[in-house]
Task: structure prediction
Amino acid sequence: MLLEVQTELDLTDIDLSNVHENISNAGKIFNALMDRLTQYLSDSAPNLILSAVLLIVGWKIINTFSKKMKEGKIFGRVEATSRSFIRSFLTIGLKILLLITIAAILGVPMASMVAVLGSCGLAIGLAIQGSLSNIAGGFILTVFKPFVVGDYIKSGEFEGTVKAINIFYTKIITADNKIVVIPNSKVSDSALTDFNAFSTRRIDIEIGIAYSADSDDVKKALLDAAYGNEKVLKEPEPTAVIASFDDSAVKYLLRFWSNTGDYWDVKYDVTEKVKKILDQRKIEIPYPQMDIRIKKDDN
Result:
């Protein structure tokens, strides 16, 4: 069953005597505000135009400056690692300075602005402690230079070639062509390996050989594999030694040096040569094996 409820609005109790007066007062207030806004815009028009022009032109100049620094046209003699960090730091600093200058032109009291910036700075500082530690880490990396742009490094679980050191992050390119972004604080506070610190690197190849093989023959085969690659350095000389006696094989160690840039090519090539030479000379590389003896109980 559908019920319809009708309610009549009783206007007899509403006092409408002051409505016209209130509307009139609101109109006067609105007109007064518009007059003051118009007067402010009229008086401040030159400053507003100057601020707008300064913002557009200044922002473009800063971005152009940053781009030229990145390309090395400015501070070209500065080492790439330092230039990358300085570029990030100066770009942010110049943009903040530009905004403060525009605020001063618009008539914002500098004392009030300093107070506000101080309060905001404290609040922001507490909120972004991690980011501030990243900035400090960036300064450490730039000043002490544990590595430079272009070096192959390992930091924590990541390793790759350093692409850039920015104000907050260090970017590295991995061997499979991915970019990893690591906070500067983690890079500066953790153990770090720089594979490009020196011009040469040592390569170690371990291989298990059967106990039945003659050790002199094995050593000669390993050294022949090393000398078979022209990029293996003759000084220090390659060496082949018995490293340990394992359960199923004698472990030999082949050790030689190469230029840092040739490391991986030389390592893979010599490893392949070792296998081929051992096969040619019938030197056995044994599988893991175990001798089991069963004792028979006569009873």
